[in-house]
Design brief:
CATH topology of the largest domain: Tetracycline Repressor, domain 2
Helix content: over 70%
Strand content: under 5%
Number of helices: 10
Largest sheet: none
Radius of gyration: 20 Å
Number of domains: 2
CATH architecture of the largest domain: Orthogonal Bundle
Distance between the termini: 73 Å
Order of helices and strands: HHHHHHHHHH
């Protein structure tokens, strides 16, 4: 038997190891926060040596960047999969709200890790991540704009500024996980129901078709 590993096998092993490290980073961020989440702490969480992390990631900044990208990708995939199952623009908006809140409740570690990175990580120039301009398209906000645009085109929605409303809705959905005072007093089902009611009043035309 040939014991030499193929390039595909080595790539799979490397990707699996990187995924393991990112998962450990998420758990560590949730447990002790960004400032204390050193590579040594993350390695301890993963049950590996810090040198192995250094083999796959240049430093903590690169690991946090990749962790953030993974968190954003996973949440977008979860939400958009459910949005695609809805039919009308109104139903899609409701699905977006329900899925966004469900993801945060199902994966509280990931929600906390995302907040820790966005609000505590800084670039080499000492710029906080939350102050950076977006370099690429946010798939969730893009999906919201498409839903809102479709609703206006079909006449189901009233006239409004699409970018403004999309930003408001996305912030309202993902505010829930970061606002402990809110989530401690209001359960996710109640929050979702109230938010959907407000969204309908804000964007959906009434039966007379008034603007």
């Amino acid at each position: 038997m040939d014991n030499r590993r193929t390039k595909e096998e080595l790539t799979f092993i490397s990707e699996a190891r990187r995924a393991q490290i990112i998962h450990a980073a998420i758990a560590t961020l949730d447990r002790i926060g960004f400032q204390r989440a050193s590579l040594a702490q993350i390695a301890k969480e993963a049950g590996i040596s810090p040198a192995l992390i250094a083999y796959h990631f240049r430093d903590k900044n690169e690991l946090m960047d990749q962790t953030l990208a993974t968190l954003l990708e996973e949440s977008a995939e979860y939400v958009l999969r459910r949005v695609e199952q809805a039919d009308t623009p109104k139903q899609k908006l409701h699905a977006f709200i329900d899925a966004g809140l469900a993801y945060q409740c199902l994966h509280p570690q990931r929600a906390t890790a995302l907040i820790e990175i966005v609000f505590h990580a800084r670039t080499p120039d000492n710029v906080p991540y939350y102050k950076l301009a977006d370099d690429g398209e946010d798939p969730l906000e893009s999906a919201l704009r498409q839903i809102l645009t479709e609703g206006r085109r079909t006449g189901e929605f009233r006239e409004f500024h699409v970018d403004v409303v999309a930003s408001i809705l996305q912030s309202a959905v993902f505010e829930y996980a970061s606002n402990r005072g809110l989530s401690g007093k209001v359960d996710p089902d109640t929050y979702a129901a109230e938010l959907k009611r407000l969204v309908d009043r804000m964007v959906v035309k009434d039966r007379r078709g008034d603007e």
